[in-house]
Every structure is written in C-alpha cells, then in structure tokens.
Design goal:
- With about 90 residues, the chain is mainly α.
- The chain has two helices and no strands.
- The longest helix is centred in the middle third of the chain and has 13 residues.
Length: about 90
C-alpha cells in the first residue's frame, strides 16, 4: 500500500505507481480516466458526495474495470476499497 494518498483513486482505491490522479499536491486534477472504475479525475470525484455516488453506482453495476487489459491478476475489490483514504469514504 502506498503511503501517499495522492496515488490512489478516491472512488475505487486503485493504487497507481508514479501517477497522481489529482497531482502530487492533491489539488490539481488530471481529468484522466481511472483504469479501474472509470472515474474522470476532477469531475466525478470533485467532492465527497460525488465520490460516494460514483462508488455506489460502480459497485452496484458489478465493479467492472474500465480498462480490463490492465487489471492486475490478483486484484481484489475488497482490498482496493480498503485503500481508500478515510477522508474520501
């Protein structure tokens, strides 16, 4: 698990290596799309209500990967959700 919360998708908890969805400062969204949950950083995760709504919808729809070709073999929804920083739950 990364110690830097800025490496983690605020919606699904996917942990990126050397990539910061909201910039290294956590305040500069990239507007890229999360490979895991399909969230557009800076739009669908712009506040806690949006984060929770997107997460709920994604899980209700089966927690499918937006880019399944990059899904780690050992990926687990439960583990991913546990990585979500408390401030985004």
């Amino acid at each position: 698990m990364h110690s830097n919360i800025n490496n983690i998708c605020r919606v699904c908890g996917f942990s990126y290596d050397n990539y910061y969805p909201w910039g290294e400062d956590g305040k500069s969204p990239s507007f890229d799309i999360c490979d895991c949950c399909g969230t557009e950083f800076g739009y669908q995760d712009c506040n806690i209500d949006a984060i929770r709504a997107k997460r709920t919808k994604w899980i209700e729809e089966g927690a499918k990967w937006d880019s399944p070709e990059v899904q780690p073999i050992n990926w687990s929804l439960e583990d991913s959700l546990m990585r979500i920083p408390e401030i985004y739950k």
